[in-house]
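Priority: medium. Attachment 1 of 2:
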């Protein structure tokens, strides 16, 4: 498997709708492994297939234990054809994106979501997420529809560039 190049804003593939997966086969599993290799190498919280230039409806979510409540093991999800089937509440929080490196802004999102998807065995799963997990799920699913976090920012004055050396501190503070 491989760490793939993450495409950045300006690449037209980031603005296209992704195609549904018809069958979870070895090709899909290889793509999922590449997504995992890539998100781990980039130290991201999630990654969608379009971000590596593949217009398929697959996301991975990786929220490490230090981003969640104490004692929680963290979250690792592979979701195929994910769709939000229920959403409620509202939160506004800082977001960034591996495809728009260094840029962050305050984005409104639902506080709670339920997502229906397929797992790697092709079985339907439902995932309930709140807070940071809900935010990451919405962010990654948006990628599948060609939507970037900057499209969701209501107050453009919150959009700012944070150089790499400050990035980790800022995002960690925003996630807690």
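Attachment 2 of 2:
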């Amino acid at each position: 498997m491989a760490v793939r190049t993450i495409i950045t804003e300006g690449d037209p593939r980031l603005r296209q709708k992704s195609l549904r997966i018809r069958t979870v086969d070895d090709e899909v599993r290889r793509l999922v492994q590449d997504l995992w290799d890539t998100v781990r190498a980039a130290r991201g919280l999630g990654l969608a297939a379009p971000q590596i230039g593949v217009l398929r409806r697959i996301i991975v979510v990786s929220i490490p234990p230090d981003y969640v409540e104490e004692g929680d093991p963290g979250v690792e999800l592979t979701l195929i054809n994910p769709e939000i089937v229920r959403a409620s509440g509202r939160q506004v929080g800082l977001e960034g994106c591996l495809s728009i490196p260094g840029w962050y802004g305050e984005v409104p999102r639902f506080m709670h979501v339920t997502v229906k998807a397929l797992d790697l065995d092709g079985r339907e799963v439902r995932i309930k997420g709140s807070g940071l997990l809900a935010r990451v799920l919405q962010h990654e699913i948006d990628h599948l529809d060609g939507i970037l976090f900057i499209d969701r920012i209501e107050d453009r004055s919150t959009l700012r560039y944070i150089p790499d050396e400050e990035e980790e501190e800022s995002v960690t503070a925003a996630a807690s």
